[in-house]
Write a structure and sequence with these properties.
Helix content is 40%, strand content 10%. By secondary structure, it is α/β, with parallel strands linked by helices.
Length: 220
């Protein structure tokens, strides 16, 4: 979707029309969680797209109509709004059995406006009473197989996370998350722990004996 380059995206907190439009107005693609029914998928598409022809009711932001600045379409043979509809990805997340079983109907109804589908494996497993991100349980594998076969039927790509160098899990996925700020923070935990262990407490007023206790005080 980004032609092999990094793509800015926002995982919006829910299906709220304003939140989806706000993220798209900022120039990001959107990942929409917990899409379980055709009705919910219709609502997501409506919030994300301009114009009835694209099944959309998204409000047009005035900032996209600044003459000579933001009103120039990438493809001049189409309207600005048709261009805008194609310049950001709309990705839905399936995160339980109901969503997986309704995915065929969802993509039959609005698949022409959905760029990719992400199986949220953690939430899917939680919904059926299982721990962890993945596992060999038949019920979970049935959901995974249904998800994959449905996407293949509708020629819609998969997407998701690929952490720890498990590159096989990212095969043939056009949108893959390989890192994030949270993981950088985890890597710093050893340094934070070391600081706690090696920098002693300050005295009551933060002066005086602090130099003796921490080895650093008053800019030394």
């Amino acid at each position: 979707m980004s032609e092999g380059r990094t793509m800015p995206f926002v995982r919006v907190p829910g299906h709220d029309h304003a939140s989806i439009g706000y993220a798209l107005d900022a120039g990001a693609s959107v990942v929409v969680p917990q899409v379980e029914t055709v009705e919910q998928a219709r609502h997501v598409v409506s919030a994300a797209k301009f114009g009835a022809a694209s099944k959309g009711t998204r409000s047009a932001p005035p900032c996209l109509w600044i003459p000579g600045v933001s009103d120039m379409a990438v493809d001049p043979t189409r309207t600005l709004w048709e261009n805008q509809n194609d310049q950001a990805a709309v990705i839905i997340q399936i995160e339980n059995e109901e969503g997986a079983r309704n995915l065929d109907a969802i993509l039959t109804e609005v698949g022409d406006q959905i760029d990719a589908v992400w199986l949220g494996s953690l939430d899917t497993r939680v919904s059926i009473g299982l721990d962890g991100f993945s596992g060999p349980e038949p019920r979970f594998l049935e959901v995974v197989d249904l998800y994959r076969e449905t996407l293949k039927k509708h020629d819609i790509p998969q997407c998701g996370m690929c952490l720890g160098g498990n590159w096989a899990s990212a095969a043939n996925k056009p949108f893959v998350i390989v890192g994030g700020d949270f993981f950088a923070l985890l890597a710093d935990m050893a340094f934070i722990k070391g600081a706690r262990e090696n920098l002693g407490p300050l005295s009551a007023n933060g002066k005086g004996d602090a130099k003796k206790e921490t080895g650093v005080a008053n800019g030394d």
